[in-house]
Every structure is written in structure tokens, then in C-alpha cells.
Amino acid sequence: MTPEPFGLDRGLTDYGDPDFARYLRRSMARSMGISKDLLSKPVVGIAISPSGFNNCHRGMPELTEAVSRGVLAAGGLPRAFPTISLGEVFLSPTSMKFRNLMSIDVEEMVRAQPMDAVVLIGGCDKTVPAQLMGAASAGRPAIQLVTGPMMTGRHRGERLGACTDCRRFWAKHRAGEVDANEIAEVEGQLAVTAGTCSVMGTASTMACIAEALGMSLPGTAAIPAVHSARLVAAEETGKRAVQLAHIPITPDRIITEHSVENAFRLLMALGGSTNAVIHLTAIAGRLGIRVSAERLNEISDRTPVLVDLKPVGEGYMEDFYAAGGVGAVLRELRPLLHLDCLGVDGFTLRERLDEPAGWIDRSVIRSMAAPVSTVGGLVVLTGSLAPDGAIFKRAAATPSLFETEGRAVVFENLDDLSARIDDPDLDVAPDDVLVLKNAGPHGAGMPEAGYLPIPGKLARAGVKDMLRISDARMSGTAYGTIVLHVAPEAAVGGPLAVVRNGDRIALSVARKRLDLLVDDGEIRRRLQSWSPPPRPERGYASLYHDTVLQAPEGCDFDFLVGSRAKG
Ligand code: FES
After folding, report:
1. Closest to 49 measured CA to CA, from 39, 57, 41
2. Which residues pair with 433 in a beta bridge?
3. Binding site membership of 56 for ligand 1 (Cβ less than 6 Å)
4. What is the fold of 378-533?
5. Which residue's CA lies nearest to atom 2 of ligand 1?
6. Does the beta carbon of 63 sit less than 6 angstroms from any atom of ligand 1?
7. Percent of the chain whose predicted confidence (pLDDT) is above 70
8. What's the chain's average pLDDT?
9. Contact predicate 227/180, CB 8 Å
10. CATH 3.50.30.80 residue ranges in the chain?
11. Distance of CA 219 to the CA centre of its chain
């Protein structure tokens, strides 16, 4: 059998003459000042995405240098290469619309360029999911390194971190409790260092999930972006990538049904982001793995929330790191985990967890005997308003609203919401249910608009929370009694499309139900006169519209699911 090509000989450019292709490639590589000796080494690609539009990736050049140092020390040739960069707050209409595009970029560049293994450096919300989706499909040995979370800032003696405190202060500003001068002061203290948002938002949740899956080195998810230990982790990651090039452990050996269940289990114990359900579903979907809504609810009902961080609790990611990080949580969850799962470090989870735990701060990472809450952070709801499911973050909601029936106050789309939410004449009361339509994947690219603001006149009257329902997503840093990801979404003709002002809606968290209390026949009649919004005419928007799947399928493109590339 012919051995698989290695290093720079891998995946030759097609001139119809392989020897010429090799000769030309070496020649061009030598123009970069690389010695002949180094050109014969295993090649480790380093996928990077620094950008003037991505604050979370500001530390990436230093991390790239540290990974390269590790690769060189282990006898490999490091080669950094760019992919597109998704800076959460700089993208319109939402970074979610471009996650799949980045995943395609990662997959194709990993496969098209000659690398024996790849280090994926990622941080901001959609980056780690896109990289893991791409790596799972590319089928090359891969190892994730995250940029790490930001440190907190200070405001009048109080610690602040993006972006739970961004929302908290903005809500106070809307309610007239914080004036324009103070909100301007706060703005300068929310995001004060390089790195990702400093609470257990989507970026931090996905960093922890990457570690729980086994795709990152143990202990690396929570190290702050500016901590020297992050550079050491980067160096170690580079060294390990060279070993992976020699003993190829590909992502399909690490991301398995069991490790995906472990990751969902960790997500529940973290009280992590609702977005992680979509992202983990998409990552698993690339390898044909599906976790049903029933299984997700079983996992949630049997997994306590153990981590006391914002937005569910009190602390920040710097506290989580100091408290023991992902390893401490996994050790607590050990009886509930599949321990046979292999990690990029070459060890099983059992072997990793057999290592001594070290000191654990129990005020941040609780024991199973004294959890933050006895059940997991997220539940899947189904019912006549969400036949294919919806997500509810019970850990960040108001328990007195868990069993609610109320009158719908409907916003047809995002423009309608922003035009009317603060209208003093809006017919709305505190026990109503705010409903936003056409903010799902087809309707609007699924922005983080599910955290509907409390209508201005109610906010000023002191209302802090009310039931809000949409087909949108919500930032992992947000909180409230909010039902998200309603599927099928309004823009494809789900029942959400025909909810009208004044309809009654019932939420029951105990029964995991979300129902539109309108006769089935009437829903059918309304749907017969419904018509879909127009299809975008060209470019990526039309590809997205035609191929994006619904939230319960991870919002991946239909042609990428379950497909692993050859070669
Ligand atoms: Fe990048 Fe929050 S803006 S993680």
C-alpha cells in the first residue's frame, strides 16, 4: 500500500506532474526563508482570524507565536493561515448568518493546504463552533485553543463584565435609573482587556464544551486571555499538534455520541448559553450524531447546575478559572459521564479525571450535594406553538413565571418591534406575553433578538421580567423568562406565523409545554392564508435561505450535515 503523503507533499497542486508540483511548492516555500530541513518536517496549520473588527481576537498574534514555538520545539513546521473572522457585535444582521460560511472556509482550507494537523485558535461566539464544524468535516487531526475570557472592569466599586452587566445597566438606563453620564462611564468599563466576554456566555460555554468534548487540552478553556498560563497552554497545544500529526487521532474519534452527551451534560451544569444547544447540535450533526429533545431533557433533569457565574449566578470567568475550571466540574459530574471518551491528549476521560483535582473554590463550583439548582439550566419545550421544539433557559428565568397563561402582544418582525416597543400607546400589561415573529434562521438569520426589551412604559413602572417568545436566539450573557428557537419558525409557516394580538398562550415548564390556546382548525385556516416572505435573489443570502436548517437541526446547511469529506 502506498503510504499517505506527508508534510508539504500532502495534497499537491494539480499540474498533471506531481514531481513538478513538489519542486515548485518547495521553491515557493523557500522564498519564505524556510530551511530545507524544516520543509521536511510534519506541517501544523494554525487557523487564525485576527481582525480589526474582532476585539475578542486581539491576543491572537501572541498566541500564534506561542503555538508556533511549541510546534518548532516538537520538531514540526508551523504555518499560520487566515480564515474569515466573526466579531460578534460588528456583523449585520448577525454573526450567526456567517457561522456556516466560516465553517466551510475552515474545512476547505484545512483540506486544500498541506497540513498534517491543525491548531484552531478561536474565541468570539461563532468561531469555536465554526472551527469544530469545519474540522469535523475536514477529517484532519485538529486541536482547539481558545483565546480565553476577558478580565473584569470596575465601576464605582463594582466589578463589571461583558455582557451580562451591559444588559443590566442598559435596562436600568431604559428604566430611568441610570443617566446618560453614568451609562457612558459604564461603556468604558465593560470590556477592558483582550479576550472573550467575561461571563458564562456563548464564547465561554463553547470553550468549556470544546474541552469537555476532548478537543482542547485539559484545563485550558477558562484561562484568562491575558494570563501567562494561556501562552503556556498555546505552546503545549502546538507541541501536541505535532504528536497528532504522527499518530493521527481525527475529530471523528473524539466527537462521538458519548462525548457529545458529556458536553450536553456539562452545558447543563454550567447553566450555559442557549446558543450552545444549536452549535453542539451542528458540530455533532457533521458526524451524523443526533441527540433527541427527549434525551436532552433527560440529561437536564438529572444534571444540577453547579457553577455560580453570571448570567445565572454571581461570578465571572476569572473566578471560574481560579476555582478549578472545567476539570473541577467534570470531576463532580463523574458518575453521570461516559468515561471511555478519548481526548486530543490521547487519554480517556477516565484517565484525565483520575488525576488529582487540585483546590476547588466551592463558592463558585458547587458539589453535587449542594448545587446552585437541582436541575439543569436548559429545557426543550414542545406544544402547539412549537411542534418541533423551543428552548427555555430555566436557570436564568423567573420561577414565578414558569407556569403562565397570558395574552399575546405580537410584533410581526424586528422593525415592528423597534418601532413600537416603547410606544406609550402600546396595549400591554405586565402579565401579557410578548411575541416576536420572523426572527428565525430563514426570517432574519436568527439574530440575538429574543431578549425582547421590557416595553418602555412597563420598565419605567418597575417591571423587570415578563414572558417573551420568539424564533430568535438570545445572547448567552442575557437572562429573563424567555422562550427561544421556536420551530418551525414563522418564516417557514410554523404556527408562530399566525399568532395574533389577544390570543392566549400557555407556558408550563413542569410539563415542558408551550401552547397556543387557539383551536387547531382555526390555526390551520389562518395558515392557509399565510404566505412566505420573499426569497433573497442572489449570493450568499440566497444560498443561506435555500439550505439553512431549523434550530433543532443546528441551523447548519443541509448539504453539510452528516458529510465527511474524503481526501
Ligand atoms: Fe466576542 Fe462576546 S463579543 S465573545
Report:
1. 57
2. 408
3. yes
4. Glucose Oxidase; domain 1 (3.50.30)
5. 197
6. no
7. 99
8. 96
9. no
10. 378-533
11. 19
In this structure, which residue's CA is closest to atom 3 in ligand 1? 88
Q: Is the pLDDT reported for residue 567 higher than 70?
A: no
Instruction: List b or e across 418-433, with b for residues whose CB sees 16 or more CB atoms inside 10 angstroms.
Output: eeebeeeeeebeeebb
Of 60, 98, 125, which is best to mutate to test ligand 1, by the most ligand atoms within 8 angstroms of its C-beta?
A: 125
- Ligand 1: centre distance to CA 54 (Å): 8
- 197 Cβ inside 6 Å of ligand 1: yes
- The residues of the chain that CATH labels 3.40.50.2300 are 41-151+193-354
Q: What's the pLDDT score for residue 248? A: 85
Query: Is residue 89 in contact with ligand 1, taking CB distance under 6 Å?
Result: yes
**How far is residue 186 from each of residues 180, 225, 317, 417, 479, measured CA to CA in Å?**
10, 21, 19, 26, 19
User: pLDDT band at residue 51, thresholds of 50, 70 and 90?
Assistant: very high
User: pLDDT band at 563, cuts 50/70/90?
Assistant: low
- Ligand 1 atom at shortest distance from the alpha carbon of 197: 2
Any atom of ligand 1 within 6 Å of the Cβ of 203 = yes
Q: Is the CB of 125 under 6 A from ligand 1?
A: yes
| Of the candidates 87, 327, 353, 59, the residue with the CA atom closest to the CA atom of residue 208 | 327
- Distance from residue 167's CA to the centre of ligand 1 (Å): 14
C-alpha pair distances (Å), 92 with each of 86, 98, 554: 11, 10, 20
Q: Is the CB of 91 under 6 A from ligand 1?
A: no
Residue among 53, 57, 196, 198 to mutate when testing ligand 1 (max atoms within 8 A of CB): 196
For the segment 118-143, what is each residue's pLDDT rounded down to a tens digit? 999 999 999 999 999 999 999 999 99
Q: Which atom of ligand 1 is nearest to the CA of 89?
A: 3
CB 305 within 8 A of CB 268: yes
In angstroms and rounded to an integer, the radius of gyration of the C-alpha atoms of the chain is 24
What confidence category does residue 476 fall into, taking pLDDT thresholds of 50, 70 and 90? confident
- The pLDDT tens digits of the residues spanning 209-219 come to 999 999 999 99
Look up residue 487 and give its DSSP letter. E
From the centroid of its chain, how far is CA 475?
A: 10
The CATH classification number of 41-151+193-354 equals 3.40.50.2300
User: Above 90 in pLDDT, residue 1?
Assistant: no
- Closest among 210, 240, 243, 236 to 63, alpha carbons compared: 236
Q: What is the pLDDT of residues 479-528, one digit of tens each?
A: 899 999 999 999 999 999 999 999 999 999 999 999 999 999 999 999 99
**Ligand 1 centroid to 249 CA: how many Å?**
30
54 lines ligand 1 (CB under 6 A): no
In this model, does residue 535 exceed pLDDT 80?
yes
Centre of ligand 1 to C-alpha 200, Å, is 11
